[in-house]
Write a structure and sequence with these properties.
Layout (H helix, E strand, L loop, with lengths): L1 H12 L14 E8 L2 E13 L2 E14 L2 E15 L2 E11 L2 E10 L4 E6 L3 E5 L3 E2 L12 E3 L6 E16 L2 E12 L11 E7 L4 E8 L3 E9 L1
Parallel strand pairs: 9-10
Antiparallel strand pairs: 1-2, 1-15, 2-3, 3-4, 4-5, 5-6, 6-7, 7-8, 10-11, 11-12, 12-13, 13-14, 14-15
């Protein structure tokens, strides 16, 4: 019970409830992608602001090699558009090995819902969903997320683990450590959400994301400006 109360206090008092305006001072966020301790790619986010409109473009590319041969590779591009705090559209195209995946999301202002056409899901979705990209710490307050690759919707449970101090690229961060897991644990393991996330309240940045799936993966914040 005590731990539960601590979680509530932290969430209510922190920037986890932040909005797109907390990123107005940033033009770029760079994350490196590691697998089993080896650098294999990158995930970059670029911010373009004009009045109350913000566009976040996402570039991701990585490849996994075994004995010199590429066994798994991903290259993708996405674009989120916001008016103030409201997501009004999201589009992405991803090439996973030779398979094309996509998402096209549009906000229906009259019905106050998202309309999604994706490679894994097409239909309507609540505006309480968040696109599951790692630049946005609001993922830590959402009850469900939309896959940025395929458009599928997954319910999630976020749990506060504790306060920690981590060192990364020569910087020391005082972070809040969370786990983010699928609400439905009966899903096949390769379909479940199962992440550890370290969040820096001072910069409003997710510093590191770690998970295990065909190896141990980490997304590490390298630079922001």
């Amino acid at each position: 019970m005590k731990k539960f109360l601590i979680v509530i206090i932290i969430l209510l008092s922190s920037k986890v409830f932040a909005h797109i305006g907390h990123y107005k001072k940033y033009d770029k966020i760079e994350m490196d992608i590691f697998r089993n301790g080896e650098l294999i790619g990158y995930n970059y986010y670029f911010f373009t602001k004009k009045g109350n409109k913000t566009t976040v473009t996402n570039q991701i590319k990585f490849s996994v090699k075994l004995l010199g041969a590429t066994i798994f590779q991903v290259e993708g591009f996405g674009e989120e558009k916001y008016i103030k705090d409201q997501l009004i559209s999201y589009d992405s195209k991803t090439l996973q090995n030779d398979k094309e995946k996509f998402v096209s999301l549009v906000f229906d202002k009259d019905k106050n819902i998202f309309n999604i056409k994706g490679s894994s899901y097409s239909g309507k979705a609540s505006i309480n969903n968040i696109v599951g990209n790692w630049w946005n710490h609001k993922i830590l307050q959402a009850d469900s997320q939309i896959s940025p690759v395929s458009g599928s919707i997954k319910e999630q449970v976020v749990t506060f683990v504790g306060k920690e101090k981590i060192q990364q690229y020569g910087k020391i961060y005082n972070v809040h450590h969370f786990t983010l897991k699928s609400k439905d644990m009966s899903l096949p393991k390769d379909k479940r959400l199962d992440f550890n996330i370290w969040y820096d309240q001072e910069s409003s940045m997710i510093i590191k994301v770690a998970y295990s799936r065909m190896g141990n993966w980490e997304y590490r914040l390298k630079n922001f400006e």
